[in-house]
Amino acid sequence: MSPSDLPVAILAGGLATRLRPITEKIPKLLVEVAGEPFFSHQLRLLKKNGLTRIVLCVGYLGEMIVDQYGDGSNWGVSIEYAFDGPKLLGTGGALIAALPKLGDAFYMLYGDSYLPADYRAVGDFFVQSGQLGLMTVFENHGRYDTSNVWFEGGAIKVYDKKNKVPQMQHIDYGLGLFRAAAFDGCSRDAVVDLAEVQKSLVSRRQLAGYEIKQRFYEIGSHEGLQELDQLLRGPSQQA
């Protein structure tokens, strides 16, 4: 299994309430950053890392993304779409619904994350780990958001967004990998939170941990949007 052959699932079905009023008429992926829709920057970053198979898990105003990006051929990538049904099924539920398009193993990231990481190195580590999932982590110390991972000795000891322990100095970076088997036993028609799936994998020692040294960026808030806009407009950025 070569990491560059794996598809990338992008979770982009949320309502993006924190970005209102911008997102009242457009989905988060189409929010303008540095003069372009955010998804254009995300696609460029993925393609630079050799990842060209994209499965977009979309819902709210998702048709607007289809209209603008289509099958991805204009970008030299392949884009498929997995639409939310009449009932929102949560982050894990959206991935489960997309499994027929994702196959045995896949990358996962969020539709508001800009992650300047070495995706191939992460993918290679996942393949070699033999585990059902992988979570990238960043040594955060509460700086960018609340730390939620106890990562020690190269392993994830605890992952919990609700119950904090003092050893949590890392945060979920937002890039993951999964085998489809990680979702065995999950409901196919009820809300499934991806964080609960990841917690279950930790308890079974089936969630590998990979530490990223570069910080993450996000457009989930107005502050994050402004920060990424400044980064992408910087002189060091290449088109």
Description:
It is a single chain. It is globular, with a radius of gyration of 17 Å. The strands form four sheets. It has a seven-stranded mixed β-sheet with strand order 5-4-1-6-11-8-12, with helices on both faces. It contains six helices and 13 strands. It has helices at 38-48, 62-69, 90-102, 119-129, 194-203, 222-232; strands spanning 8-12, 32-33, 36-37, 53-58, 78-83, 105-110, 113-114, 133-139, 149-152, 155-159, 170-179, 207-211, 217-218. Helices cover 27% and strands 26% of the residues. The longest helix has 13 residues, at 90-102. α3 crosses α5. It has one domain: Spore Coat Polysaccharide Biosynthesis Protein SpsA, Chain A. The two termini are 30 Å apart. It has 239 residues and is α/β, with parallel strands linked by helices.
* Whole-number tally of structural domains: 1
CATH-level-4 superfamily name: Spore Coat Polysaccharide Biosynthesis Protein SpsA, Chain A
- Which structural category do the helix and sheet elements fall into? alpha/beta
Largest sheet: 7 strands, mixed
Residue runs with pLDDT of under 50 for 5 or more positions: none
Q: What is the overall shape?
A: globular
How many strands appear in the DSSP assignment?
13
Radius of gyration: 17 Å
